[in-house]
Amino acid sequence: APIFAPDLSQCGDANVPLRKSPGTNVSVHCCPPVSTNIIDFKPPRFTKTRTRQPAHLVSPDYVENFKEAIKRMKALDEKDPRSFTQQAKVHCAYCNSAYEQMGFPSQDLQVHNSWLFFPFHRLYLYFFERILGKLIDDPDFALPFWNWDDPDGMTIPDIYVDPLSPLYDAKRNPDHQPPVLVDLDYSSDKNLPRDDQIKANLCVMNSQMVHGTTTTTLFHGKEYRMGYSPDPGAGTIENGVHLSLHKWVGDPSQPLKEDMGNFYSAGYDPLFYAHHANIDRMWNLWKNGLKVPHCDFKDTDWLDSSFLFYDENANLVRARVGDCIDTKTLGYDYQQVELKWLEYEC
Ligand code: C2O
């Protein structure tokens, strides 16, 4: 059976493992407001496709709109499920065992390290984007993506580093500010010369998107059905560039590498959503953008897995994996940019 959307009234404190003392957890309260009226998601009709653009290439007008939208989201009452704080908590609740599996209270619900990774984060960003669009009265608003797979996008995008901007987050590694290049295979600082870092990054991209992902499971992660223990196994991208950048951005001097370096806090950094937009773009590219097209799972346990999100009107919505496998039905797509890693020999 599929993993069903959780019962929000059963949400408990999330557990965040303490790095320095393994086996001990800190409790974090990140449950959403409860609503008993649940609507089944139907993709709304769109007249125009929203195009997500690379964050380092957006226009000044776009940036002003985007900042205004995030500012308004941060200004909403904390109890509003659409507020920035509540949106960040969505990630915490789904990632740090605040929910149990429906029908299997002894098993935690976890959206990482399995085939739920890509669809959960796609839907999460979809609702986040729709809320922002609503707040600035622009139904065509699209999130930017952090184009870290392109040499020109391999630093934290400038729009996120101005301390006075609502896109800024103080809890980031101070040693990784622009012009320092990202390390897509990060565990500790290697301080490679610029060209070598670019080559190493393109090589990582090629192996995690092309060579290393010949099967659906290698890309998406392992199957995770009702009653299964969490974390059966992540796909190449989730385990690779995805985690590397979380660690690379988070502040090592914070107790739990906040914000990006820990699942419970990652959503508090506006950069998280641009990072995950690029992860989401990788799913589209893997399916249709490479030389060989790939297929998603056809398994109904995957397609019928579901999650709950609050939409732009603060209604509680149940969305299935099967609702999100094509971004065009969700009304958005990604701007095409050259893929320098596609043919990259390493
Ligand atoms: Cu839900 Cu990048 O993690």
Question: Could you provide a short overview of the structure?
Answer:
The chain is 32% helix and 10% strand. The protein is α/β, with parallel strands linked by helices and 346 residues long.
Which distinct ligands sit in these coordinates?
A: CU-O-CU linkage
The count of β-strands is: 9
Rg is: 19 Å
Query: How much helix, percentage-wise, in residues?
Result: 25-40%
Terminal-residue CA separation: 42 Å
Order of SSEs, N→C? EEEEHHEEHHHHHHHEEE
Shape: globular
CATH topology: di-copper center containing domain from catechol oxidase
Rounded mean pLDDT is 95
Biggest β-sheet: count, sense, barrel? 3 strands, mixed
Helix/strand/pairing category? alpha/beta
Description:
This protein is of the alpha/beta class. The protein has a single domain (8-334), classed as Di-copper center containing domain from catechol oxidase (di-copper center containing domain from catechol oxidase). It has nine helices and nine strands. It has helices spanning 60-75, 84-95, 117-135, 194-211, 216-220, 236-249, 263-266, 271-289, 300-303; strands at residues 14-17, 25-28, 38-40, 50-52, 100-101, 104-108, 306-310, 316-320, 332-334. A three-stranded mixed sheet has the order 3-8-7, covered by helices on one side. A two-stranded antiparallel ribbon has the order 1-2. Strand 7 and strand 8 (316-320) form a beta hairpin. Helix 1 packs across helix 3 (117-135), helix 3 (117-135) crosses helix 8 (271-289) and helix 6 runs antiparallel to helix 8. The protein is globular. The termini are far apart. It binds CU-O-CU linkage (C2O). CU-O-CU linkage binds next to helix 2, helix 6 and helix 7. Its cofactor is Cu(2+).
